[in-house]
Amino acid sequence: MANLVPFWLLLSALLAPFASGDWNILRPKKSHLDLGDSLKVYCESWRVNVELNNVKGFEVVPQECISHIKKYMTSSQYTADSERAIEEVKLYLSTCCNLEGDGTDAWIFDVDDTLLSNIPFYKKHGFGGEKLNETDIEEWMRSSKAPALEHTLKLFNLIRDKGIKVFLISSRGEDLRSPTVDNLIQVGFHGWSALTLRGLEDEGKEVQKYKIKARQRLVDEGYHIWGIVGDQWSSFEGLPTADRRFKLPNSMYYVA
Fold first, then answer.
1. Are 17 and 11 in contact (CB under 8 A)?
2. Which domain of life is it from (predicted)?
3. CB-based contact 152:191 (threshold 8 Å)
4. Which of 31, 163, 172, 253 could be stapled to 232 by a disulfide with Cβ–Cβ 3.0 to 4.6 Å?
5. Within a domain: residue 14?
């Protein structure tokens, strides 16, 4: 029993920094937060709750959090978070699917900030701090200059090479088909089965309902949707859906 005394003394010393009610996982070594730390905690909490789909319907990133979101979206942490999501997809693929091999196995990808990165656009428009201007974002899309997200490019190729048909469902308008196809091909995406864009009949329709309709069409054609990868919750919600859904990080996904 005598040997237990030093152990508990050591344990108490290790736990001392956690005793304060002000302790936060972002700053475990300090018991009190200054104003700058408090703002960082607030902005990180806001970002995480966007990812959890608790914060909805926002038009702009809170002004006090723009620099925080910019730092995250251009950081190694954003890359690591994205790559971890892709690793989970690969794990799922390695165990999940009894592929029919008859051409009915399907997988869905979103396009913007899933296959193509809009970070160069965000850099010029305040990283979500400006209300989205449709003319500006469409001009960017028409330029066909969006770089590939390399982690999803590798996943795209892996899924396609397994014999699963890849379908792209984007909320871009049909008038953007040519620059979208050009952009995808230029950065290495080849061999998808179909690219669905919003037509005139979809104008004014909520993104979620438009994507539900697109998925229903695939199901009606006899496809089994094994998975969906996207950066927006509107890519997943509603029925029919996929066996698994994988969300990539995007703290500015008010850009539908």
1. no
2. Eukaryota
3. no
4. 253
5. no
Does 176 reside within a domain?
yes
Q: What is the pLDDT along the chain (256 residues), one digit of tens a residue?
A: 344 344 333 334 444 443 434 434 345 454 444 556 899 999 999 999 999 989 888 888 999 999 999 999 999 999 999 999 999 999 999 888 777 778 899 999 999 999 999 999 999 988 888 888 889 999 999 999 999 999 999 999 999 999 999 999 999 999 999 999 999 999 999 999 999 999 988 888 899 999 999 999 999 999 999 999 999 998 999 999 999 999 999 987 654 4
Q: Give me the CATH number covering residue 117.
A: 3.40.50.1000
Residue 233 within a domain = yes
Residues in CB range of 103: below 8 A, 6 or more apart: 165
Contact assessment for residue 96 and residue 246, using Cβ atoms and an 8 Å cutoff: no
Of 27, 32, 28, residue with least CA distance to 14? 28
In the chain, how many domains are there? Answer: 1
CA gap 239, 143 in Å, rounded: 34
Q: Are 216 and 187 in contact (CB under 8 A)?
A: no
CA–CA distance, 245 with 243 (Å, rounded to integer): 7
- Nearest CA to 192 out of 112, 88, 116, 106 is that of 106
Structure token digits, residue 172: 């871009």
Nearest C-alpha neighbor of 214 from the set 198, 192, 231, 230: 198
Does residue 155 sit within a domain? yes
Domain extent, residue 189, equals: 35-247
